[in-house]
């Protein structure tokens, strides 16, 4: 003997409606892989030191040991006999040498978190391995360190002492 159960049309309608909503909800759970927007890059921070502030003639020397700082600063001051010139670039950067490059090129002043200022190639974010960080600047003396450990081990920490009176 077979029993046939008669279902309630209201219950059946509710179940069909819930099943339809569940399927529709699964189909609209966020964007597909093809519509994911690329992550927004954070805006560039302004440098704490402007390019115009570091252009000019500088005596230059470098040290590897912090205990040599005063002696190196004196050597940099004496370097004004053959100054290193930092010029303004045509697009607002500064003209300086990259490590191991014979010709100077235009580099960008870049701002970083914590009010840091970096000097490096354009088009790269601040604090990249090709950048150098200005660790100290008072208008007359500037201390700079390379961020790449290998380059830093060869060039050390650089001390620039302004040769001409501040303009």
Low-pLDDT segments, ≥5 res: none
Given helix and strand content, the structural type is: alpha+beta
Spatial order of strands in the largest sheet: 1-2-3-4-5-6-7-8
Order of helices and strands: HHEHEEEEEEHE
State the shape.
elongated
Quaternary state, please? single chain
- What integer value in Å does the Rg equal? 31 Å
From the N-terminal CA to the C-terminal CA, the straight-line distance is 108 Å
How much helical structure, as a percent, in the residues?
A: 10-25%
Largest sheet: 8 strands, antiparallel, barrel
How many alpha or pi helices? Answer: 4
Strand tally = 8
Percent strand equals: 25-35%
Describe the structure.
This protein is an alpha+beta fold and 167 residues long. It has a domain of 112 residues. It is elongated, with a radius of gyration of 31 Å. The mean pLDDT is 85.
Topology:
Layout: H1 9-27, H2 51-54, E1 56-63, H3 69-78, E2 84-88, E3 94-96, E4 105-112, E5 116-120, E6 132-137, E7 141-146, H4 149-155, E8 157-162
Antiparallel strand pairs: 1-2, 1-8, 2-3, 3-4, 4-5, 5-6, 6-7, 7-8
TL;DR?
The protein is built from four helices and eight strands; from the N terminus they run ααβαββββββαβ. It is of the alpha+beta class and about 170 residues long.
């Amino acid at each position: 003997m077979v029993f046939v159960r008669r279902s309630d049309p209201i219950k059946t309608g509710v179940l069909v409606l819930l099943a339809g909503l569940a399927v529709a909800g699964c189909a609209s759970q966020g964007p597909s892989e093809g519509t994911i927007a690329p992550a927004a890059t954070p805006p560039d921070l302004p440098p704490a030191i402007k390019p115009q502030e570091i252009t000019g003639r500088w005596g230059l020397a470098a040290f590897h040991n912090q205990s040599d700082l005063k002696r190196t600063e004196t050597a940099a001051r004496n370097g004004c006999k053959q100054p290193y010139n930092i010029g303004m670039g045509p697009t607002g950067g500064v003209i300086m040498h990259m490590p191991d490059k014979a010709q100077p090129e235009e580099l960008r002043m870049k701002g970083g978190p914590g009010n840091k200022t970096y000097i490096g190639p354009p088009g790269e974010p601040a604090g990249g391995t090709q950048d150098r960080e200005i660790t100290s600047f008072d208008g007359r003396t500037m201390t700079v360190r390379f961020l790449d450990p290998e380059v830093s081990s060869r060039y050390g920490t650089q001390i620039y002492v302004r040769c001409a009176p501040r303009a």
